[in-house]
Amino acid sequence: MNYWLFSTEPDSYPWQKVEREKRVRWDGIRGGAAQKHMRLIRPGDVILAYHSAPEKSVVGLAKAASTSYSEPGIPAEEKDKWHVIDVAWTSWLSHPVPIAAMRKARALSKMKFLIMPRLSISPVTPAEYKTLLALSKA
Predict the structure, then answer these.
(1) In this structure, are residues 4 and 45 in contact, taking their beta carbons and an 8 Å threshold?
(2) pLDDT tens digits along 39-58
(3) Which of 43, 65, 83, 120 minimizes the number of CB atoms within 10 Å of its CB?
């Protein structure tokens, strides 16, 4: 099992929508690095749900419900370029973990998301995952 952080703007796609719908297609990702990461995700991988501006916090947990697949409705010549993945909601964190708290945590100093915060999908190490869960209970 692997861990990932998925970032979204709550005004355009809030995690509450994922909770309400139970399982959604995570699409519209156009960044090269995020696309690369998406192709590595496997069913059951844990996803940290992050809301960007204005909240800027990890707010919940979800899981990958599929492997990546070609984005439906994309022209045939671009099928291999753009992938999507199905995501299922798990739970809200006891307390959101703001990016400011993440930046203060020494154990997260090398976290890919903190180094490149504009990534919409980024890997999280098991140690970083445990740290984030501990921060959510503090």
Answers:
(1) yes
(2) 999 999 999 999 998 889 99
(3) 43
